[in-house]
Design goal:
Number of helices: 2
Strand order of the largest sheet: 1-2-4-3
Structural class: alpha+beta
Number of domains: 1
Order of helices and strands: EHEHEE
CATH topology: Translation Initiation Factor IF3
CATH superfamily: TusA-like domain
């Protein structure tokens, strides 16, 4: 059984602190652990940044795709 996802609601985090907070949470994951990201818009730019800075280290899947709430499972490989 896989461990429960760690939920991170970034809607309450100031914009300039969102990506650093997400990276800290992601870097704290062990192999196979999942971060459930909750946001008020499509976090596609974050996906590109993760791909550039943490290549081949994650799987990304949308759980909910707006229009008001976006939920993404980011699993550490």
């Amino acid at each position: 059984m896989s461990p429960a996802a760690i939920e991170l609601d970034v809607r309450v985090i100031p914009p300039r602190e969102k990506h650093p907070s997400i990276f800290r949470a992601f870097d704290g994951l062990g192999s196979g652990q999942t971060l459930l990201l909750i946001n008020d818009h499509d976090p596609r730019p974050l996906r590109y940044q993760l791909a550039a800075e943490r290549p081949d280290q994650f799987d990304w899947s949308y759980v909910e795709e707006g229009p008001e709430t976006w939920r993404v499972r980011i699993t550490h490989k």
